[in-house]
Every structure is written in C-alpha cells, then in structure tokens.
Amino acid sequence: MSDTKVIRVGDDYDVVIGRGVLSEVASRVPDGAQRVLIVHAPVMAAAAERLAEQAAVQGLEPTSVELPDAEAAKTVDVAARLWAVLAEAGFTRTDAVIALGGGATTDLGGFVAATWLRGVPVVQVPSTVLGMVDAAVGGKTGINIAEGKNLVGSFHPPAAVVCDLDLLRTLPRADLVAGLAEVVKCGFISDPQILRLAADAEAATDVDGSVLPELIARAVQVKADVVTSDLREAGLREILNYGHTFAHAVEQVSGFSWRHGDAVAVGMMYVAELARRSGLIDELLVEQHREALQLLGLPTSYAVDGDVDARWTALRAAMGRDKKTRGSTLRFVALTAVAAPTRLAGPDETLLRAAYEAVLA
Ligand SMILES: NC(=O)c1ccc[n+]([C@@H]2O[C@H](COP(=O)([O-])OP(=O)(O)OC[C@H]3O[C@@H](n4cnc5c(N)ncnc54)[C@H](O)[C@@H]3O)[C@@H](O)[C@H]2O)c1
Ligand SMILES: O=C(O)C(=O)C[C@@H](O)[C@H](O)[C@H](O)COP(=O)(O)O
Ligand SMILES: [Zn+2]
C-alpha cells in the first residue's frame, strides 16, 4: 500500500491512513467549530505545533495542552484539568478536541470530548501502531482508576481518525512491536491473512516498507466492520477483547507499568491455554499463538518475582472486574479455530489457575 487509504466506519467517519496526511487534520474538524483543544503526548509537541498552525489557517482558535506520558494521562485528575481548560476558553458544543499521541492520549482525549457538555466532536490522530489499529478507532474512550483498567469511560465515536504513517518513524521499536499484538489479535479473531503477513517480522516492523501499512489497514478494517455492527459491545464487539481479560489484570497488578500490547500478547497465550484445557482448541493452535507472537518479539510468558499464589489472587480479583463479567461469572473471548471466536463462560477455577501456571515464565 503506497497511497493514502480511507476506510469508512459505517456511515459515520473516515479512518485516513497514509504518509504525510497530518496536513489533513484541521480540515477534518467538523464545520461549525470555532475553537479546538489539541491534547498531545509529550513526544508529539512539534507535531502539535504544526496542528495548531494548521487550525489557525483554517480560522480555528487553537488551545494546546501537553499531557503526561502514557498511562499517566488516563486519570480523572488529568481529565478534570482539561475540563477546566475548556471552561476557561469558553468551549461550546460545536467546538472540538484533537488528540495526538498513542492510545493513552486518544483514550483520554476521547473521554474529555465525550464528557464535555455531554459530548463534543473529537478528531483522533494516533501516533503509535496500537493507536492507529485500535485505540483511535471505534469510539471506546476512558480512564483508569486504582481498581482497574478503563473502568470509567464512554462510547464516543470520533469525527475522523487520521493515521500519518510518517509519525511512526520515531516510535521506539518496543512500542511498535507492542502495537502489533493488537494486529495479531485481529488475525486470530477474523483475518488469517494478517497472520501470514506478520510472520515476516522484518517486513512487519519496517516503517518504510509496504507490509506494515497493509497490516495496519487490515486491522483497521477488522475493527471497522465489528464496531459498525455493534458499537456498544452488546455481543459481537466482545471479540476485539480477545486476550484482554488476563491482559488488563496484568496491567493493573503491575501498576500499569506493562505496555498494553505486551499484556495483550500474554493475555492471548493465557486464553489459548485456557481454551485448550476447556476442550475448545488443540495444542497446535496454542503453538500457533506462541509462534506468531514470538516471531515478532512479543512476550508469551509472565514472570512473577515473588509469591506466585499471592499474584494469582491479585490477578484473579482483577479479572473479576473485567467488563465482560456478568454477576460473578467470568466470560472470556476464546477461539474454536482461527477466525472462529466464541465465548467461554464460567470456566472452572482449577482451569483458570492451570492456564496461569502454563504462562508463568
Ligand atoms: N479505546 C480503545 O479501543 C483502545 C484499544 C486498544 C488500546 N487502548 C488503550 O491504548 C493505550 C495503549 O496505547 P499505546 O500502546 O499507543 O501506548 P501509549 O499511548 O502509552 O504510547 C506508548 C509510548 O509511545 C510514545 N509515543 C507515542 N507516539 C510516538 C511516536 N510517534 N514516536 C515516539 N514515541 C511515541 C508515548 O509517548 C508513550 O511513551 C492503553 O491505555 C490501552 O488501554 C484503547
Ligand atoms: O474496541 C474494543 O472493543 C476493544 O476491546 C479493543 C481493545 O483492544 C482495547 O484495549 C479496549 O480499550 C479494551 O476495552 P475494555 O472495554 O475491555 O476496557
Ligand atoms: Zn487492547
């Protein structure tokens, strides 16, 4: 894929994927806006300045705010600070937010847009692979609290998503690879061609090549198709949560020090081990998970420094707060085969523990 690609999400909005498309951002702010709040990750300060200049040329009045980095942005304190900025600058319902950064920035920016005056438009400008393929698309926005990941949030679809692949040039390799975990997830739940393409790790991680853009576009297409038919996660959308029950527990228990994508990689291994023990899949498919993730340099095991029983107790409690849980019944997205997702509800506690032991480093 060398040219700009536009993927339409339902009848709602475009996801623009291409090189140099940052120049399109201001023109994607919906008509009627007079002011625009640009929130950005610290590393995106220069690009945010370009966006502010663009906005001014477009006749918009920009206010820029640099957020704390990564998960430190996804807090109620940061959101409250931005609500105060919006109030002070007189933002009305037709004014807009632009969020420029990784998934943490787009989650927070989207949440602030969703909550200000009960909802103003947001243009998402993801600067990580993970943000492009997942966080910026689909309208899930939110913040973390001490008790768990993304426990407070709202469904608030963006007005547009602009993925400038040139932004990925500065992305550290570890963050790029972590983003590929969500791409591999899309391969397992829906698009096996992703798994074939991602098996060439060199090509898949080359920001100047053609394979990474194709992987990004394919994963966006999977997400676009799913959220078009089930925005509010009444059923189908749950498949995008593959691997996340264990992943979010790992993130919370580590004090959000794990990269989300790395946690999703281990989370997919956990649920594959659980699915095998529950008779849904065979060892071959578990190994296919391990190989796909390891080829890219993603983690497939979980190291516990200390008491493994105490850690399990903490992880198990965190898994109970997963949004797919109903009552006290844990519900996992699992596979019966590649591209054949199902739900695994209320697996026996011994199987849950056995799958944990299987992923221990
Ligand atoms: N809303 C959703 O549907 C959804 C989907 C998946 C993930 N998420 C959320 O997204 C977050 C993870 O996103 P992420 O992996 O992008 O992490 P992140 O936002 O924390 O970014 C990772 C790191 O990369 C840096 N960075 C960002 N862009 C850069 C660039 N172009 N060059 C150099 N450095 C750059 C950031 O400053 C940060 O340090 C998690 O909070 C996760 O819960 C949300
Ligand atoms: O878009 C979705 O739906 C997803 O589940 C995508 C996930 O990759 C993402 O991490 C999402 O934020 C998790 O949602 P949560 O509802 O489990 O917090
Ligand atoms: Zn995720």
TrEMBL record:
Q: Where does NAD(+) bind?
A: 69-74, 103-107, 140, 149
Q: Which GO terms describe its molecular function?
A: 3-dehydroquinate synthase activity
Pathway involvement? Answer: Metabolic intermediate biosynthesis; chorismate biosynthesis; chorismate from D-erythrose 4-phosphate and phosphoenolpyruvate: step 2/7
Cofactor note, please?
A: Binds 1 divalent metal cation per subunit. Can use either Co(2+) or Zn(2+).
> Where do the annotations place Zn(2+) binding?
182, 244, 260
Task: Name its co-factor(s).
Answer: Co(2+); Zn(2+); NAD(+)
Q: Known catalysed reaction(s)?
A: 7-phospho-2-dehydro-3-deoxy-D-arabino-heptonate = 3-dehydroquinate + phosphate
Q: Where in the cell is it found?
A: Cytoplasm
Q: Locate the 3-dehydroquinate synthase N-terminal domain: which residues?
A: 65-176
UniProt cross-references to SUPFAM superfamilies, sorted A to Z: Dehydroquinate synthase-like
- The EC number(s) attached to this protein equal 4.2.3.4
Q: Which InterPro entries match?
A: Dehydroquinate_synthase, DHQ_synth_AroB, DHQ_synth_fam, DHQS/DOIS_N, DHQS_C
**Function of the protein:** Catalyzes the conversion of 3-deoxy-D-arabino-heptulosonate 7-phosphate (DAHP) to dehydroquinate (DHQ).
Protein family membership:
Belongs to the sugar phosphate cyclases superfamily. Dehydroquinate synthase family.
Q: What is this protein called?
A: 3-dehydroquinate synthase
What organism is listed for this UniProt entry?
A: Flexivirga alba
Q: What is the lineage of its organism?
A: Bacteria, Bacillati, Actinomycetota, Actinomycetes, Micrococcales
